Amino acid sequence: MSACGHLTDALLRACPNLRILATSRERLGIAGELTYSVPGLSLPDSRGLATLENLRQFEAVRLFVERASFSQPGFVMTESNGLAVAQVCSSLDGIPLAIELAAARVKGLSVEQIVSRLGDRFRLLTDGSRIALPQHQTLQATMDWSFGLLTEPERVLLRRVSVFAGGFTLEAAEGVCCGDAVANPEVLQLLLRLVDRSLVVARDRGGVSWYRLLETVRQYAWQRLGEAGEADEIRRRHLTWYLGLAEQGEPELRGPEQQVWLGRLETEHDNLRAALEWSMAHPSYAEKGLRLATSLFWFWYFRGHWSEGRRWLEATVSPEDEAPTQVRATAIRYAAMLALHQGDYGRATALGRQGLTASRKLGDAEGIAHCRCVLGNVAVHRGDYGRASTLFKNAVALCRKLNDKWLLGYALCNLQFAARDQGDYERAAALGSEGLALFQKAGDKHHTAWALRNLGLVALRRGDHKQTATFCGESLTLAREIGNVWQVEQNLMGLAGAAAIGKQHGRAARLFAAAEAFRKSLGRHRSPVDQADYDKRVDSTRAGLRNTAFAAAWAEGKAMTLEEAIGYALAPVEPAAPPAQGTQKGLLTPREQQVAALVVHGLTNREIASSLTVSERTVDAHVQHILDKLGFHSRAQVASWATERGLKTAR
Predict the structure, then answer these.
(1) Within 13 Å of residue 402, how many CA atoms lie on the same side as its CB?
(2) Which residue has the higher pLDDT, 555 or 624?
(3) Buried b / exposed e across 487-518, counting CB within 10 Å, b at 16+?
(4) Opening angle at CA 104, ends 103 and 108, nearest 5
(5) Cα–Cα dist 267/290, whole Å
(6) C-beta neighbour count of 521 within 10 angstroms
(7) With 0-12 CB in 10 A as exposed, 13-18 as middle and 19+ as buried, what is 127?
(8) Which bin fits 304, alpha (ψ -120 to 50), beta or left (φ > 0)?
(9) Each residue's pLDDT tens digit, 197-225
(10) 137 or 408: whose pLDDT is higher?
(11) Which letter does DSSP use for residue 205 in this model?
């Protein structure tokens, strides 16, 4: 590199019109040099979302298919192996040599078998071209050659950063990887040198540099870490660092910095999982793993990672006859809360009682109040309102005695559920308003959104669709801001109920369908009272539409992405119009009304043109005008809208 740099500099100084294009794994590092980082080949999403035609547009896929056909004449990418091809290319990060070596294996393995063996890619991807340079004949040789060019401190750091899952920050690297050959102040410079040598990838993420290793580099460096005998020590440091991060963020998750910390923990989720997995596999570090799991509870809860959180927490729950510790008692009640939300009432009851016993032994008043709320919610879901009210009232009294404002708000909103389901809407609204004020004062946006939603559902039970829309709309806006998926689902349901009461049947059907799809993805269960209320509202919506229109609107809502559903729910609601066709003149022209009415019957533009004796181009223009005026993006929406308003034409 030094010799090339000196030569290039001398030539450029002597020859003013000379331009030099140099390729290397790193910059020459001389004045006037412009750097272009050559990216890997373009890659598809490996989750099976692309069609075969779309897959063929990606460079990595085209290279794999081309080289595979050389190795195995007659090889073609099909519907059955297309996903596996995408997975191979993505797992190999679009590295051309790796893809070529993988494609050569189709002569003896199916693409699916290649995918399953990429965890040991250095033994799999061998036997490259005999006339290539030695470092280009196998993946192992390529990595050995590149690793051999590093200085010893660079090798040490590269080995150690392989412990990170998904990526890492500079602070994490300094906290985990320094020591022995790498001093803390040296980490930044060494890391930047690894970036220059194309072994570490750096990206800006929200104003913070985020570093990661390509999977091939990470697997190689991890092997080297094991050979150096450092794997367990670096894993221990990794666990310690991420435990510190989680415990620092835990109190912030219920305060003004909630959104910042939710985003940070989401970014670090893969590392947090890796730390938990290692701690659970090593009994001497199980207590740290338990602390980490309890610190992450509110993150899991707010972001809808219920099954994952419950799995980690329940894995740490001790037998009832074992002497409880504070952290274990906390884990028990958190696991109970997640079991409750997933409709596992038997397990929620058992854990709630176990947590209550443990909290009493420890004299933990906060834990006692929390467990009473969990058990009270189980009673609500089972229709035992007397028991629920007693448990909630006891929790409220204890919170007032503790002067814990946040926990008091939580207990009040839980007591609100019992009042609401017993038809005492005035008291439910008062309890909810008091809880809302406490959460707003604490700066807790999640529970502010929750309290607003609760007030919206009280208004819905009263039949006040305008107040429901106001409360649930405000709650939904907050939920989107902080990325709370399960609050989004419940607010979509509330806004759907408001639309049903307001006779906006098409809107109600779309929102009900979107909310139901997200509820199932979360695994959330409704109480019997909520289920009965839901069934009643959906039935009234179905009765307000024809079967075909209801089915079309439901399909549209079910197909919406989360962001599309939120945008639709928060869009201004068009006032309901009486079914008489004449009232539509201010919105659509008479000819556009005719076209919309024929769309209801599922006619194509050509068929509509034939029916109206006009050109197909004219119908194309009318349909586009209708979509633009109504703010729709599909013919199915037009059909639902037209059906709601009684636009119909005899065929």
Answers:
(1) 21
(2) 555
(3) bbbbbbbbbbbbbbbbbbbbbbbbbbbbbbbb
(4) 105
(5) 21
(6) 13
(7) exposed
(8) left
(9) 888 999 988 788 999 998 889 999 999 99
(10) 408
(11) E
347, 530 Cβ separation under 8 angstroms: no
Residue 453 to residue 591: CA distance in whole angstroms: 43
Q: What radius of gyration do the chain's Cα atoms show?
A: 31
Count of all residues that appear for the chain in the document:
651
Any idea of the CA torsion for 463, 464, 466, 467, to the nearest 10 degrees?
-130
- Report the alpha-carbon distance of residue 618 to residue 251 in Å, rounded: 62
Phi-psi region of 391 (alpha: psi -120 to 50; beta: other; left: phi over 0): alpha
> What does pLDDT average to over the chain?
87
Residue pair 577/607 in contact (Cβ under 8 Å)? The answer is: no
Residue type, 393: K
Residue 50 is predicted with a pLDDT of: 67
Structure tokens at 194: 């690894």
- Candidates 348, 259, 247, 324; CA nearest to 288 is 247
Above 90 in pLDDT, residue 563? Answer: no
Residue with tokens 């070596």: 101
* Alpha carbon distance 447, 432 (integer Å): 11
Query: Tokens 């004045």 label which residue?
Result: 31
Residues 424 and 461 sit within 8 Å (Cβ to Cβ): no
Ramachandran quadrant class, 52 (left: phi over 0; alpha: psi -120 to 50; beta: rest): alpha
Are residues 382 and 345 in contact, defined by beta-carbon separation less than 8 angstroms? yes
What is the model's pLDDT at position 389? 92
Is the CB of residue 506 less than 8 Å from the CB of residue 542?
A: no
pLDDT over 70 (residue 651): no
Identify whether the C-beta of residue 286 lies closer than 8 Å to the C-beta of residue 280. yes
Encoded amino acid at 187, one letter: V
Residue 284: other Cβ atoms inside 10 A: 8
Dist. CA 408–CA 447, nearest whole Å: 12
User: 579 with 596: CB under 8 angstroms?
Assistant: no
> Residue 576 and residue 335: Cα distance in Å, rounded?
45
CB atoms within 10 A of CB 409: 26
Is residue 251 within 8 Å of residue 295, measured between CB atoms? no
Higher-scoring residue by pLDDT: 102, 585: 102
Task: Look up residue 368 and give its two tokens.
Answer: 């006692």
User: What is the reported pLDDT for 48?
Assistant: 56
Hey, which bits of 254-375 come out as E strands? none
Q: Which of 184, 192, 162 is nearest to 271 (CA)?
A: 162
Give pLDDT tens digits for 458-484.
999 888 999 999 999 999 999 888 887
Work out the pLDDT band at 228, boundaries 50, 70, 90.
very high
Output the pLDDT for position 128.
55
> What one-letter code names the amino acid at 421?
D
